[in-house]
Amino acid sequence: MAARSRLAPVLVALGWLALSTPLLAQEEKEKAKADPDRMVKAEGVIVKVEPIGDSGRVKVTVNQAAVWRDWVRDQATTKPKESPKAGENSVATKGQPVSPADSTVFEVGRKTHLASRFRSSTDETNSGSRTVEKAERKDGSPESDKVRTSPKDEKAPKVAASDLKVGQFVEFEARKGQAERLIVLKPIGWPETPASQEKPSK
Known about the structure:
Layout: H1 2-34, E1 40-51, E2 58-63, H2 68-77, H3 86-89, H4 91-94, E3 103-108, E4 113-120, H5 132-138, E5 169-175, E6 178-188, H6 195-198
Parallel strand pairs: 4-6
Antiparallel strand pairs: 1-2, 1-5, 2-3, 5-6
C-alpha cells in the first residue's frame, strides 16, 4: 500500500506531461510567431521530409502532438511487413490529428548539428544519451553522464540529412525556419518498462 501511495504522484505527473505536450507545442509556436528571432525547442515525430533540389538540404515537418510514450508503444506493436499502411496511420507517424498549430516546418542543412541518441522508453525528460549503457541508467538522472562505459557498449550512429525519414522521433531547436540542432531519438527498453530495469545493472 505504501509503495502504491508513493507511485501515485509520479503517475499523476506523467499523465499531466502527456496531456500538456500539445499545449506546450502550441505555446512555443505562438511565442516564436511573436518573436521571429526566438529559438524554438521541441520534440515530435517527422511526418514529411522534402529534398530541396540538389542542395543536400531537406525541409522537415514535425508533428509535436505525437508524444514519446505513444510513439514507443506503436514501435513495439506495429508490423509494417504485415500491414504496409499501419506505420503510416499509427500514432508514431501522425500522433494526434495534425494541424498547423501542432506542426513545425524547418530546413535541415550543413550548418545543422545532427546526431542520434538513445533514450529509455519510459523517459520523456532528457535529450537522450550517446550510448546504450548511459541510456539504461539515465531515466531522468544526469548522473548517467558519469557512467563508465565498456568497449562493447553500443554507441549511437551518426546521422546525415539524407538519413531523416518519416516516422522518426526527434528533438529539435530551430530559429527562423532553420534547424540549428536535431537529435533522432532511439528507444531502449519496452514501452512500460524502464530500460534500467530491463536487465541487472553492471
